[in-house]
Amino acid sequence: MASIIFKPTHLRCVVRTRSLIREMRITVCPIRSYATEGDNKVPKIYTKTGDKGFSSTFTGERRPKEDHIFEALGTTDELSSAIGLAREFCLDKGHTFIYQLDKIQCILQDVGSNIATPRSSARESHIKRTKFTAQPIADLESWIDKFTEELPPLTNFILPSGGKSSASLHLARTVCRRAERSVAPIVRSGEADPDVAKFLNRLSDYLFTLARYTAMKEGNEETIYIRPQ
After folding, report:
1. Arithmetic mean of pLDDT, 80-103
2. What is the 3-class SS of 23-67, one letter each residue?
3. Is residue 141 a contact partner of residue 202, using CB atoms and an 8 Å limit?
4. How far is 55 from 58, CA to CA, in rounded Å?
5. Which residue, among 190, 53, 167, has the nearest Cα to 117 in the 3D structure?
6. String of b and e for 209-222 (b: at least 16 CB within 10 Å)?
7. Is 4 helix (H, G, I), strand (E, B) or coil?
8. What is the pLDDT of residues 143-180, one digit of tens each?
9. Which of 3, 90, 125, 178 is most exposed, with the fewest beta carbons within 10 Å of its own?
10. Averaged over 74-102, what is the pLDDT?
11. Hey, how many other C-beta atoms are within 10 angstroms of the C-beta on 115?
């Protein structure tokens, strides 16, 4: 997974995430190892440990890179990147909900940590460190309800549209659905926390609602589905 850059207000999230990632030894943060040159530490982005097509979970297992765990991790990272792109469009328009997207990207790091800790090989210390709670789900529901109160009722199917901010949020929504599909079998097998799947399910609803909200706030029309004749 690629790194995510946060503002200083999210320093606590970054410090916690980097500390965990150094233990996990998975590709989430680019600063994965250090080589010493004199008295200076030089960051290295490569470790060569995955050259043979295997990578490590937080619990220390070596699995093929096409394993469902890494597929889910990669899709979750792709989701965060899609949200990051949408965030930039929304930031350009001066939307006030940017802090929500920042928080969600932080939480997606925690989602990745939970996925990367298969319960079948996890010790109690692993589980305690990567436990995922239900609070982020409640936050999403609260935000969804607030935006919905301002939106007109949805009476037609709409297509991804409504300006760059809205369309990019719709794109993030579709990636979120794919992330949810990739996580579902891991959760069903008991290898990840059920709240991870619930969070992704609710996040797609949030992104859909937010896409409509941004279109409305920017004064852009959404494209309505019309059955071709």
Report:
1. 98
2. HHCCCCCCCCEEEEECCEEEEECCCCCCCCCEEECCCCCEEECCC
3. yes
4. 10
5. 190
6. bbbbbbbbbbebeb
7. coil
8. 999 999 999 999 999 999 999 999 999 999 999 999 99
9. 125
10. 98
11. 30
Q: Name the 3-class secondary structure at 72.
A: helix
Q: In angstroms, how far is the first alpha carbon of the chain from the final one?
A: 44
Q: Is pLDDT above 90 for 225?
A: yes
Residue 9 CB partners (closer than 8 Å, separation 6+): 102
Q: List the structure tokens of 183.
A: 């996580």
DSSP output for 175-188: HHHHHHHHHHHHHH
pLDDT of 172: 98
Cβ neighbors of 205 (< 8 A, separation 6 or more) are: 140, 144
Collapsing DSSP states into helix, strand and coil, what is residue 5?
Answer: coil
| Lowest mean per-residue pLDDT among 40-54, 88-102, 202-216 | 40-54
- The single-letter code of the amino acid at 133 is T
Contacts of 37 (CB under 8 A, 6+ apart): none
Tell me phi and psi for residue 165, to 5 degrees: -60, -50
Give the number of other Cβ atoms within 10 Å of residue 95's Cβ.
18
Token pair, residue 113, equals 């940590």
3-state secondary structure of 228: coil
How far is the C-alpha of 163 from the C-alpha of 224, rounded, in Å? Answer: 14
Q: Which residues are CB-contacts of 164 (< 8 A; sequence separation ≥ 6)?
A: 89
CA distance 206 to 225: 21
Strands 33-37 and 223-224: unpaired
Report pTM.
0.80
